[in-house]
Amino acid sequence: MNELLTVAQEPSVGIFLTGLLGLIWGSFFNVCILRLPENQTVIWDRSHCPQCKNVLRWYHNIPLFSFLFLRGRCAFCKQSISWQYPAVELITALLFVLLWLEFNWSWQWLFYTVFASSLLIITVIDIHHMIIPDEISLPGILVGFVALFFTHDILWWESLLGAAFGGGVFLLIAYLYEKFAKQEGLGGGDVKLLAMIGAWLGYRSVLTVIVVSSTLGSLAGLSVMAIKKKNFKTAIPFGPFLAVAALIYLILGNQINRLLLLDLSD
């Protein structure tokens, strides 16, 4: 057993194992992305082609390799398979590897892969449907609070304050924007998502996440307006920018806090 643990600590082995786990879980995340917006079960029903509805064989569901083997087409109806499927699998594998390089085999790696995976699922769903499922964000607040007792990265009151502060700030911004602009700016899903991020990363993360996500969102919005000749009322999903900002803080939070003189522990 000790020899196996020693081998698993080797960078090449760790990268291979976590990458493989990421590909496998990424395949399941594609199911979540497809079914959650339609209020369908993500566990019991077998995978099927969204075009012809034929149930897929087990060898049609091998992460990444099935897409390459089938040349990006359904084995039955020959319709194109979305590039989203291999992309989500590869991104999940990359996230798992990056988190392993940061945290190695630890409770932190285990729980933060759950956090990062939730953000990825939310991102893709928000891009497609402009919604953030409560089935992920609301339980995510509770899981984030439980996680701190294993990761020990923040204190319990920092998690609670982060959830309250994150949700409260965005709720106030959404109210003021709607009151003065006479249209909805931030949706309720964004409010719950920032509350979830605050629960995972603590209250000190909230300001950084808001600033980074707002900057990224503004740049993306200006780019969309320039390319598609849209006006300032063009709606773009904000969840992906919150997710990216949260991942940046997850990896670089200590450095950011020291830079902003918010880390008083030293």
In short:
The protein is mainly alpha-helical. It has helices spanning 2-8, 11-35, 65-69, 84-103, 107-129, 134-151, 156-181, 188-201, 203-228, 239-259.
Structure in words:
This protein has helices spanning 2-8, 11-35, 65-69, 84-103, 107-129, 134-151, 156-181, 188-201, 203-228, 239-259. It has 266 residues and is mainly α. The protein has two domains: 1-105, no CATH class; 106-266, no CATH class.
Query: In total, how many beta strands?
Result: 0
- The helix count comes to 10
User: Mean pLDDT, nearest integer?
Assistant: 88
Task: Assign the structural class, choosing from mainly alpha, mainly beta, alpha/beta, alpha+beta, or little secondary structure.
Answer: mainly alpha
Major sheet attributes: none
State the separation between the terminal residues, measured CA to CA: 38 Å
How many domains would you count in the coordinates? 2
Shape: globular
Strand content: under 5%
**pLDDT < 50 stretches:** none
Rg over CA atoms: 20 Å
Order of helix and strand elements from N to C terminus: HHHHHHHHHH
Range of helix content: 55-70%
Task: Name the descriptors.
10 helices; globular; 2 domains; 266 residues; mainly alpha
How are the elements arranged and paired?
Layout: H1 2-8, H2 11-35, H3 65-69, H4 84-103, H5 107-129, H6 134-151, H7 156-181, H8 188-201, H9 203-228, H10 239-259
